[in-house]
Structure formats: C-alpha cells, structure tokens
Amino acid sequence: MYKRLAGCNFIPYTSLESNSAQRMPNTSARPKHGRRARRRRRVDPARDQLVSSSLESAQQCLLNQDYGTAFVHYLLVLNLAPVFKDFAQESFRFTLFKWAKELDSVGRIQELFDCYEQALEIFPADEVIVNSMGEHLFRMGFRDEAAGHFHKALKLKPDYPEARENFYRVANWLVERWHFLMLNDHGRNRKYQQAIQKAVQNGCNTVLDIGTGTGILGMCAKKAGAAEVYACELSKTMYELACEVVAANGMEGSIKILHKKSLEMEVPTDIPHRVSLVVTETVDAGLFGEGIIESLIHAWHHLLLPPKRGEGEFREDCTTGRVIPAGATVFCMAVECLEIRRHHRLRAAEVGGLSMAAAGELRSPVSCSSEQDDSTEPYTTERLSRLPGGYRELTEPFTALTIDFNNVLVRELEGLSSREVREIRLPVTLEGELDALAVWFQLHLDEENSLSTGPQEDTCWEQAIYPVHSAMSFVLKARDELIVEVSCRDAYLRLCCVAVLRDGHKIDLDERVDLQNSGQPIPNPNPEVELCSALACLQTSQSDSEDFCMLECSEMALLNNQDYHQSFCTALNKLISGLKVKSQNLNTGGTAMSAVDSRLLYVLDVSEGFSLLSLIAAHQGQVKAYSSVEKTKQQNVLRRLAHSNNISEQHLEFWLNHTEDERGVLQRPSREKLWSAIILDCVETCGLVRQKLMEKASLARFLLEEGGHIFPEKIVVYGMLVESDTLLLESAVQGQEPTLGFNIAPFINQFTVPVHVFLDFSTLECRHLSEALELFVLDLMDANANYTEREVRVQTISGGRITAIPFWYQIHLDQNISVSTLSRNSHWKQAAVVLQEPLEVQARDWIRLAVKLHKSTISISAHIDNTPVQMD
Ligand code: 44T
Question: What stretches of residues are TPR repeats (predicted)?
C-alpha cells in the first residue's frame, strides 16, 4: 500500500543541514567498497560511509515509494558528494517530483517550495526542475513568479517544449494583449505625446507616470524636456519590462521607475518632492475599473503640487499640479443584442429533452443590481462592432457622467462615491428587446486632445457592457423612456436599468416583478417557465430570489445551445437503446447477471463546470448517471431538474462526492460495472483543446464496458489560411518604425504568443486565402489512430499575405452525429495560430502546413511548396 508521508517531515534534513558537512556525526561504521570510496577514504572515511549508505537508503526508499525520506537522503548525498550529481540527477528529479506531489496533495506548500529551493541549490541550471517549480507556482496563483521560472527554463534550454508551452500560457496573463493594441494605436500615442509635450513646455517640469506599462508616457515627458520624471508600475513583469525599455532608450539615469502601486508611494521616500504633472492611462473600458479615482485622490493628497487656484489663472508653472487626462465624459446607450442575451440569461425552456422550468434563477457573474454582491462584476467588455449578429441601438447615446480629474477644490473625486444615485432618462428611439446598456467614454487629455472609446471609432478600445438581468424579456417601444440609475461604488461606475415610462405609467424592471402589475413585462417565450419558476420559489425556501445559482457566461451560452444538447440526447439515446437490447439478449441467453444490474447502465460525465449531460443521460431511463458538477448550488439545480423531470434521485450521483480528489474521477464505479459511456469535455471555451484530453481518453477507454462509448468519439480540427491585420495588431507591436521615436517593440514582443484565443472568426476582419481544410484528427476511441505530427497541403484561392490560421473543431459524438464549434449558437470561441512571419502567396499557390500537437497545444508552420505531388 502507498505510504503516505512516511512519517518524514523536514526536521531530519534541517538538522542535517545545520550540522553541515564538516560536522557530520562521527560514525564507527566502515566505508564500503569501490575504488572511488577507497580513494576518498583518506580524506574523510566517515563521510564516505555516510554518503554511500545514504545513497543506498535513497534508492531503497525510492523503491518503497517513500519519497520524502528518499529526498532527504539524496540531498545529503549530493551536498556531501557533488561528484554523484550526474549519476543521481534523474532519480533525484524523480524523487523531488513525487515528493512535491505528495506535499501538494496535503497542502504542505511551504515545504514543497523549500524542497524546490534546496533542489535548485544543487542543480541551479536544471531546466526541468526550474520549469516544474514554475508549474507549482502557477497552480498556487503566483503567476509572476511562475512566469519567471518558465522564462528561466526557456533560457536554459530554448527548445524545451514544456517550458515554452508554459511560458505561452502565462505570457497572456503577464502582459495582457491590449498592451500591443495600445502601442499599435498611433492616434492614441500621438495625442498623449502632444498633451504631455504641451504641459511640459508650459512649465510642468516634474512628472509622475502612474501605471507606466512599457514606460512610454514617462519617456515622452523626458523627451519633452521635463527635469525630473518618475514612474510607477504595480505589475512586476511590466515594471521589469519598463526598466529594460527605458535603459535601451538611454534614459536609465533620468527616469526613476518604482515597482509600486501609486497608492503606496510617498514623499520623500519614493519621490523627493511633489510633482507638477501626473500622467496616467490607468483606465479600463468602464473608465474607473483600474482604480483611477482612488489613485488620483491619493495623488492629489500626497504626490501632486496643489492645484491651480482660480479659473483666470491660465499660466501653468512649476508650483501647481495637474493631471493628464484632465477629465472624461461617459456615455451610455441601450442595445438589443442576441449575442449578449444568450450569454447572460437562460433562454431555453427545454434543453436536450429536459424541461428547465424548475432550474430556478440562473445568473451570469456580471450584474449591476442594487444588491451588494462581491461575486459579481458590474460589467463585461465587448467590442460592439465585432459582436456576431450585430446589435441594435434602442436609444441615442446619453451622457451618464462627467468627471474633472483636476477639480480638487470642490472635492469632485472624493465626492464621486458619495454622490447620490442619479437617475437619467433615455428616450427610446427604436423598438427592441432590452439586453444591455453599452458604455464608453471620451477621455479629455487636455483642452485640445481627446480620445474616444466609442463603438463607432476605429480604436483599440472595447466598450463596457452592463447586461440586463431580469428574468423577463422586456421589449422597449419607441417613445418609451428608459430610467437608468447611475452611481459609483467600489471604484466602479454602476448603471442599472430600473424602470420604463410608457404612456405615463412606470413599469418596474426589477427582477421580482409582480405579474399582476399594470406594467406588462413580456414574459419569457415559454409561459410554463415563468409559472414553474414562480412555483419553485414558493415551494422551497432555498430558491427564493436571494438564492440564485451563478453560472459562467459561457455556461449560460452552453445551456442556451439547444442543438448541442439535442445532438447529445440523440447520440446517447442511440447508444443506450443499443446496449439495452444487448443486455436483454444476454439475459434471455441465461447469463448470471442480476436482474437489477442488467437494467442499469452507467454513464459518467466528466465535463468541467456546469453540465446537463449526466441528467440528459439519466433521462433516457435505466441509466445511472454520474455528474462531476462540484458546486453545491449547481448540484442543487441538477437535483431540482431531476426531480421535476421525473428522474429518480438514485439515478443521479455526484461523482466527486465519492472521491477525495480528482484522481478518483476516472475510476470505475465498482469492479463489475464498467461504464457504458464516458462524456469528455474536449474543447475549452477559448477555442483550445482541453489539456490532458488524450490522457483522459486513454484512461476512459480502459474503463468502458464492451460496446461502451466515449463522447465525443473523435474531434477533427479545421483551419483556414487568412490575411488579418487585426490579429497582428493584437499579437505584437507592428512595423519597423520606433513607437513615438522610442525603441519598445523588441522588448514587449518577447511576450508574443503564437496562438490567439477567444476569437470570433465570424466577425474577424480578414481575407480568406484558402477554403477550410482539415488540419488534424484526434481519435478518442482508438489509440492507434492517433499521431502527433502531420503535413497537409492546401491551395490558396487568392493571393495575399498569410498572417494567421484560425482553427475550430467538428466534434463527432458518434459516426453520424456531430457539432461544430463554429456554429452560430456555439458557446465556444475560436483560436488562431499567428505565423511568426507573414507568408506572401499568389493565387493557386500550394502551401505545405506542418501541424503538430504537443500536449493539447497545436502549432503550425507554413511554406510555399509548388512542387507537383507524386501520384502513386
Ligand atoms: N485595458 C483596456 C486597460 N496600474 C488599459 O498594472 C484598450 C482592454 C483594454 N500601476 C482591449 C482593449 C483595451 N499604480 O500595467 C498596467 C497596470 C498599471 C498601476 C501603479 C496604480 N495605481 C496602477 C493602476 C494600474 O497601469 C498599467 C495600465 S492600466 C490599464 C490600461 C486598449 N481590452
């Protein structure tokens, strides 16, 4: 049996270490065999003895799977006798990884990292250990540190695919893609530069850049002639990047960069005195989400010179302070948008044959209701112009708020949170369903320069989307007035649609709308849904309106995807009917199977997150389904749905309730009962193949009964050659020209990743240079059918530059039924490989693609290859 922790903690090692090599206890045991041992005996026989017996013990412990003790022995050996490093490196690594896994599983995290540190003292250049430590750090949420390790492992061994993949995985988090967009937005760059130049020329000669990113605004100030420039950046990666960039531009000594949040800065510790200008672009699509209000309140109190006094005082000088941007105007507008709707509200009354009436209230995590709720964000972001299916403007844009960042005297900034909730009225101009409020702003850098983040502008900006959450659909009519409450709480601008004025009547949009109310909220398309959820609320205390169940937006879209569930339902039904017939035949054939067993088939759904598939399986009858849904509230929803759809409680089990940890998920229910079907969740919402999919599939194959099935049985990856400048702008700083005259691109472009995720291929601005083509096949049912590399040839349909290859999946549930991740109502997005160098092609050129799949990561390289193909 597995020996857990083996009674070994780190006290033995610590004490050995503190005794250190020279003061090893003097044992009387004689050294053992070996020429080397004899040679060294002269130096220190006791030590040699200890080394050889420890090495032996290490190996023995390893065999006994007592990794903790083995690790301690190895440490001792390698510290005392570095000569064994080459010999023991492999086993040492193995021991370390096993021991770390055990420590991890029991939450002894500090010890785990201590072990890695000790290991790295012995093998500082071991890229496998460095990378593995990064993986642990990543899982613990220490992204920056993890990235540092992946980066280091890559530097130690540039062709180490594990480290490269890991680095690509964190690069997105470390340096978010919008940094590329912003640096590629020449309009934005120029306007900031002009505003800064003017301010400096007018006398602001001490400058602080809050949230410096790559250092660009700080460098502008220096170039404009500012005497002193300071910059701060809270992200460690961005701070390090800024230091590199500033040094490469010869300003190392003249811009002082701090790795700090501006709120932690003070005079004179961080900067010697107050500054006359703060420049910042710490704004997100919702304007305040990056904390600009708090930062500026703090800056005015602690870091900036006092503001200019009177209106008449135009001349700036070095005795007063000011901020760029000077202020902002926020706009909002009501929109109808199917794409937003299906990600935030349950639309389907029936999913895969199940009535959803008893589901209770399902909410997306984006909500701006009056209730205080920390688990939700008030808005999400979208580029409206790229939403599939588009959107309809139901009102004119309306000013929701104006803010002056320099108006300190009337305490404009401090007053923002305490400003009363303001009500604004938006005249409805077009009839349509109210799905969301879209919000954007104009950022007034100074009197002359401003940036707009509006949906019509050709900028890098997205808009903030405040989805309407009401369980009811509500159709606005022309001449209605929509009443919106505007407030500012927890550094967020909050907008909430509260009511509609129609023909002199006020219709409340509150979620708990009284159905008999004079207002006529249009009920859900299916009245039964309304009635049943009302009933559910009456019946159980836990499902009153306070008790909703939260689902991710993508899970909501999944539920609304009826085609997908219907396909599953049909495929499951086909399999189960087949197996039932088979078991009946067996039974009449007089086998020894018990009557109960012969009637029950076992189905396991190992989807990540919320999934109805186990329930759909159980709904087929004579099926015992196991769900991997973990969250209690989500399990309760499934239980309620089981109950209301007449599925007996015994036919639905929650698999994780039975097992201690994840490792148990893919185990058979009991020795006799192999699974009839295992449902694997193979594609992530972002458009990538799920990690470890093929490992899971091979485990699943082993656990299937004869005639059993893995869903899906196969996935086919399709792709297309495209020319897309948009994708390039998001992936790297483009062009040979320096950015505003500064050398920035080579530094930030180190964080370029070759695979883009969360794309919407249907609205991606691009030219198709080929037809869709099959790139790769993953067979989940047949191990022998798989490969890791493939060459595909494709002919271009027109000339241009191949910059990227978007890809998507056809998911084959069985031989006849499949779903595409590209379908209109898919909850999946697409991904794309962006080529390192664009490839210029002529129409009808043949392109050879080398496609590789390594641990669920697809990589593609493309070459022109017009040599005729040999026909056999
Ligand atoms: N992205 C918008 C936000 N920081 C832009 O660490 C628009 C998103 C966006 N540093 C698509 C397109 C776009 N003290 O590096 C960051 C951040 C740092 C601070 C020190 C502080 N108080 C702060 C606050 C933030 O400032 C940098 C820029 S913040 C956001 C900018 C292109 N998706």
Answer: 127-160
